Amino acid sequence: MIDEVFEATKSGIPFEPSSKPVPVEERARLLIDPGFGKVFTDHMAMIEYDEQDGWHDARVTARHAFTMDPASPVLHYAQEIFEGMKAYRRPNGGAALFRPDANARRFAKSAIRMAMPPLPEEMFLESVRAMVRADREWIPETEEGSLYLRPFMIANGSFLGMRSSTQFIYAVIASSVGSYFKGSSPTVSVWVTREYVRAAPGGTGEAKCGGNYAGSLVAQGEAIRQGCDQVVFLDAIERRWVEELGGMNVFFVFEDGSVQTPPLDGTILHGVTRDSLITLARDMGLTVREEPYSIEQWKADAESGRLREAFACGTAAVVTPIGRVKQADGEFLIGGEQTGRITSRLRSALVDIQRGAAPDPHGWVQLVD
Ligand code: COI
Hints:
The chain is of the alpha+beta class. The chain has ten helices and 18 strands. The strands form two sheets. Strands 1, 2, 3, 4, 5, 6, 7, 8 and 18 form a nine-stranded antiparallel β-sheet that branches. Strands 9, 10, 11, 12, 13, 14, 15, 16 and 17 form a nine-stranded mixed β-sheet that branches. The longest helix has 15 residues, at 121-135. It binds 2-OXO-4-methylpentanoic acid. 2-OXO-4-methylpentanoic acid binds at residues 84, 213, 247, 314-316.
């Protein structure tokens, strides 16, 4: 049955256009300065799953609210996963996705970790392409603008027993976005939490599941109260190795031009942006290490000048330089709180490929016709 549905969706997901799309003038007003995750498009994609029929009923329809039973397992046990990816406007007016196959693969892996049925990768890809086709007019024309796609899967049903569900809803919503960080400073500040950890070995750290993000919010709140933009999590065992920020990976750049990022040891999200930047840095001839980096070393290297730059990266954050690191016993600065040269080169190399301003040597860009 899954194969039959798969064949059906390869030839195109049925599209029922919204009968009440946002008027063109209103949409133009919303796209001037959309912020992040506040402006939503007219449509959504949906595919349903149950044990008998597998994945079925793929469709793109008007964006609408879900009706769910209050005993639906996602509401109690957070059996939920998601992805974040972007579609960009091309110089010729078309649209393109960046490495959607990497998101499809990660989504399937997250599903397996959370005892959910993996969505066939081709179905995932067809659903996001269908959304870009339906809502391409929602891609902002601004320099930083893009269409942020949010595929997600939730466990549906009506029971409270501790077991995996047998019914699931997969959906894709889309949001017109500008840059993730609002401030006027070229760099962001981060707070190193000592009280909370994001993920432990054997846990769900490398799955993109909602629970990881819910669990980070109290620490992110701590960061905001400390006057910082983002929280930094250390490892759960020794509480000294830098792992990840609230919703983004982290990189360090040294005086010899080498670049380092924490290794993917099961507790860190396999960021698509992280992976792309490692490749681009190596293309530039830079040495890249995927090795642990401790918070004491980060401070010592920033103070001695051995560390020149640090940045956060992710689909939402793109590449955002870190200028100030604060912890309970004080703070230290990086690169005079200015955007560093290598951070800036890596950011441009990535963004130029994504937006079609530079060749795409790794075949990462997929045009949506
Ligand atoms: C993304 O970069 O797409 C993320 O998932 C971060 C998000 C939670 C804002």
